[in-house]
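Input record (one chain):
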Amino acid sequence: MTESRNRHEIRLYVHKLTVGGMLLALALIIPYFFHLAGGPSSGRVFLPMHIPVLLGGIILGPFFGAIVGGLSPFVSSLITSMPPAPIMPFMVLELAVYGFVAGLIYHTFGFHKPVAPFIQLIQKMTSKSVSVWVKRLESVIITLVAAMVFGRLVYAGSLYLLATLFEVKGANVASVWAAVSTGLFGIGIQLIVIPPIVLALHKGGFINGFFVRGKKTT
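The corresponding structure, as predicted from the sequence alone:
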């Protein structure tokens, strides 16, 4: 029994490592083509690196989500100089939080289940009966919004510390708001693109980072 469980855990770890590597590769490739097509400013507008990171948290959980989020801007900066070195540490923190919070809320708090606890509470309060897939959609959207909020808070906090400790000009609340307002279009894309992908993975039986043969979640 123990040996079988150990084999399962090893297989799960390998699957998560493989999927995490694929998402990390996407987090490097997608922004590169966006920069080629639209120039350096396209990254700040469309936020292409964020999509694989958020998917990493939702699919793989908080640990691997944080790793994908932290490594993506770091490796990209080393290979392509995007993001630039002065911005890279802040993006590492922000995207690591994105991946971690997305995984924490979706998996640890039970939002990956057909009826997440928070959605169940809303349903009781509003006396509304909705389909399982609508509930899943709501769960994914809540997860994304929470991850974005916490990620931006960490980004703002790190800039505040930089400005306070080292008196760096331009590292202030205004720069955070500028980054948020510039990336509103990208945030909209994330909220439109990611939920259908997650729902499709659920429907196809993609559970906790790997496919389970012959089994589909409902």
